[in-house]
Each structure stands twice: as C-alpha cells, then as structure tokens.
Design brief:
Layout (H helix, E strand, L loop, with lengths): L15 E4 L3 H11 L1 E7 L6 E6 L2 E6 L4 H14 L5 E10 L9 E8 L4 H4 L7 E3 L2 H13 L5 E7 L11 H5 L2 E5 L2 H10 L3 E11 L8 H6 L2 H11 L3
Parallel strand pairs: 1-4, 1-5, 5-10, 6-8, 8-9
Antiparallel strand pairs: 2-3, 3-4, 5-9, 6-7, 6-10
The structure holds hypoxanthine (HPA).
C-alpha cells in the first residue's frame, strides 16, 4: 500500500522496524546485519531495507531529520503498513558531564515544547513515555549481553543551531540528552496504540563540548545497532 511518501508494498515492510535518522546508516545496517536484505524504499532518498536478522523479518527505515520527517514516516508505518514495533536508533547530545561520548542511552520518556502535537490534533502533552514492553526487553538484553546502558528522558528540539546555550530548564525537567525526532515517534505510537522507544549513542556533549566526527557517527554505532536488533526480534 504505497503512500505519498513511501513506495514500498505493504508486505515488504516488517512488523518490526529500526529507524536511524540517516539513509546511509540504514544501508550500513542492512548490509552488515541483515540476511537477504532488499531495498524497499528509495523515495526522497529515505532508504528502507527489509531482510532477516536471526531468521526474523526486520525493516530498517531511515526517518530523516526532525519532528516533521519522523512525524510523517512513523505515522504511515503505523497507520498504513501495520507496523507494531519501532526502535529509533540515533545520536544525541548530552546535557550531563557524566553521560559521555559513545555511552548508550535508552529513552524512557521524551520532553518537547513543539507545536507539532497541537497541530496534529491533540492537546499539548509535552512529556510522553516510551514503550514499557520494549524497554524491558532492551534492558534484559543489555544485561545478558553485558552492554552498559543508561536510562533517562531525552529532549526533542526543533532547532539544531541555537543561540541560547542555557540548558538548565531542560536539565530541571529531567532531560539527559537532546535530539530531534523521538517526540514525533512516541506521539504517533501513542496515537495508534503501538510500541516505540529510542536508543542513542552520545555523539557530543553540550556541557564539555566533546564530539565525534561524522565518519565515526556512521560506523561506530555497532553496539547500539546490535542491541536494538537482538531486542526487537524478541517481540
Ligand atoms: N542537538 C540536537 N540534536 C542532536 C545533537 C544536538 O546537539 N547532537 C545529536 N543530535
């Protein structure tokens, strides 16, 4: 069932979807981890691949950047393609000096002051929890595989370039890191009563100003990708 934004046939999208922001990362994950990976979407360069991970069908679909793009793709995946589970796998900037580069963060909830929710037809909710079910599986899997995982709230911002460097308000609201898509994903999961969460590799620290380069951003995310794949196939 193609939509205005997705050309894949309905049967070509699995019930379990991983969503990196970057189409190149979607290709990297598919080539490295999926058996019999086939490309199922190229529209607008937002690549999606479907294949098998340990015998289970998984789709890797790039969300693009920002609430707008994630808002469209997650809506259509849940509503038109009957997707049940989405794990966003992304990078985030840390608000905490102890949340360091390459640390893994699982978002148990998200905060955003965006107007997206009101325009999408709901009240201004501001804080949304991620899927308890998916989070439990991810935490169990991390423990079994000996992967260190921090858990906390993320802030979804709409502006990457900001003049205001005072993050104290977000820190007071419990946010450990900032990114640009999770609010839209969790909003749509709640709307359609589906399951979604988000895992992050810390790519920069807004307090200490450390950061990793774009090549490493693409390649050094394997632990997060492995954890997401090992977890989603258990659902
Ligand atoms: N701001 C917004 N999104 C991000 C950042 C940031 O500093 N780092 C990684 N994703």
């Amino acid at each position: 069932m193609p939509t205005v934004h997705i050309e894949a046939k309905k049967e070509d999208i699995a019930k379990r979807v991983l969503m990196p922001g970057d189409p190149n990362r979607a290709r990297y994950i598919a080539m490295k981890y999926l058996e019999d990976a086939r490309i199922v979407n190229t529209l607008r360069g937002e690549f999606a691949f479907t294949g098998k991970y340990k015998g289970v069908d998984v789709t890797v679909f790039s969300s693009g950047m920002g609430i707008g793009s994630m808002g469209i793709y997650s809506y259509e995946l849940f509503n038109d393609y009957d997707v049940e589970y989405i794990i966003r796998i992304g990078t985030a900037g840390s608000y905490d000096k102890d949340l360091k580069l390459y640390d893994l963060l699982l978002a148990d909830s998200v905060y955003s002051k965006t107007y997206f929710d009101e325009e999408a037809g709901h009240e201004n909710v501001e804080i949304i929890n991620s899927s308890f079910d998916l989070n439990s599986v991810i935490m169990d899997t991390a423990r079994i595989k000996n992967i260190k995982l921090k858990i906390g709230r993320v802030h979804t911002t709409e502006s990457f370039y900001t003049e205001n460097k005072d993050y104290s308000k977000f820190i007071e609201l419990g946010c450990m890191a900032v990114e640009m898509e999770t609010y839209a994903l969790l909003f749509n999961a709640k709307k359609f009563m589906k399951h979604a969460t988000a895992l992050f590799t810390i790519s920069d620290n807004l307090i200490t100003h450390d950061e990793i380069d774009s090549i490493s951003r693409e390649k050094k995310l394997d632990e997060m990708i492995y954890l997401a794949l090992e977890s989603i196939i258990k659902k």
